[in-house]
Amino acid sequence: MDSPHARGGVVTETQALRPHAEDAFSAELQALAAVDDRPRPERWRLSPWAVATYLLGDTLSDGTVITPKYVGPRRIVEVAVSTLATDRALLLLGVPGTAKTWVSEHLAAAVSGDSTLLVQGTAGTSEEAIRYGWNYAQLLAHGPHRGALVPSPVMRAMAEGLTARVEELTRIPADVQDTLITVLSEKTLPIPELGEEAQAVRGFNLIATANDRDRGVNELSSALRRRFNTVVLPLPASAEAEVDIVSRRVDQLGRSLDLPPAPDGLDEIRRVVTVFRELREGVTDDGRTKVKSPSGTLSTAEAISVVTGGLSLAAHFGDGMLRAGDVAAGILGAVVRDPAADQVVWQEYLETVVRERDGWQDFYRACREVSA
Ligand SMILES: Nc1ncnc2c1ncn2[C@@H]1O[C@H](COP(=O)(O)OP(=O)(O)OP(=O)(O)O)[C@@H](O)[C@H]1O
Ligand SMILES: [Mg+2]
Fold this sequence. Notes:
Layout: H1 4-8, H2 21-24, H3 26-35, H4 48-56, E1 58-59, E2 65-66, H5 74-84, E3 89-94, H6 100-112, E4 118-120, H7 127-130, E5 132-134, H8 136-142, E6 149-151, H9 153-160, E7 163-167, H10 174-177, H11 179-185, E8 188-191, E9 196-199, E10 205-211, H12 222-225, E11 228-232, H13 239-256, H14 265-281, H15 300-317, H16 324-335, H17 339-354, H18 361-371
Parallel strand pairs: 3-10, 3-11, 4-7, 7-10
Antiparallel strand pairs: 1-2, 5-6, 8-9
Helix pairs in contact: 4-5, 4-6, 13-14, 13-15, 14-15, 15-16, 16-18
The structure holds adenosine-5'-triphosphate and magnesium ion.
Adenosine-5'-triphosphate (ATP) is lined by residues 70-72, 94, 96-102, 209, 211, 236, 245, 249, 300-301, 304.
Protein name: ATPase
Pfam family, one: AAA_5
GO molecular function, one term: ATP hydrolysis activity
């Protein structure tokens, strides 16, 4: 797909450490556009059906395989995509590591062919970051005029009818968040300095993400919340689903890092996922033994990093097979965030659960070695 990055020639796909979704999956997006004969909302690159197919994966009538990006309930994706086709904005909510950012990027890539119109929300995010700023040299030389105005990603998305993204909306101070109210309800951005307004053209919409755990940092005002349809992204429903997510993503990441594929890595992935789920849920898989949960969040995203780190160890310092010793250090690092409290939790889990489990002796030894 002819994305702005490819056009500008600044970063090409082969140079970028992490290409944008519209570049990394341009072949899939093109194939979808070719077979997609359903109606497309104005300025959408694909129909809502094709956007959902891009996210969920399928094999097209011409044989092209669309890889699943999001693994989870189909309905969630359908609600998210159809929201974007309305005049309401989309809020993706969930605990850390549930693919909010990932889904937001892929939605923007599929709908608008551009996932880069992004505002990263932090405690320091200012109104200018959401509205517009000024080029001061221009402003001083020629006074306030359109040419001196530096549009924010949101303003650019409004002007071009594209999808804007706001990451971590609830980290933004409440009064700054409220800048979005006019944008979302009136679809316009007043520019009092020029006595003008910038109106959104059809096709514009906005995807925000927010973390469940951050609630209370800055609440979303009820006025703003009413402008959004909220879609909650759940944790993977089963261990099998989580293993599937981790192995798919590790495979993709490994390829982009040129790591050789590890045969039989699945057993180790299953083990990482089991450990994370048991510690997260506070009970063993068989429901028999209660375990304490550590302070950090053991999300799917962390499991993906532990396995990717393990593959790198196996490739560079092992025999290429992913083994217990390659993931043990990563697991310890993910679990023990608070050296005092988490260390106790981990030791207890190690001695009462891991040690007793059939077929886990190699893993027990590897963990003991890195814990010492
Ligand atoms: N259900 C899922 N389907 C596909 N990938 C997933 C799923 N859950 C997690 N992931 C993977 O987890 C990684 C992290 O996801 P992401 O960064 O989007 O999480 P997040 O919800 O934005 O977390 P945070 O709240 O920390 O910002 C991504 O690589 C993503 O592919
Ligand atoms: Mg995120």
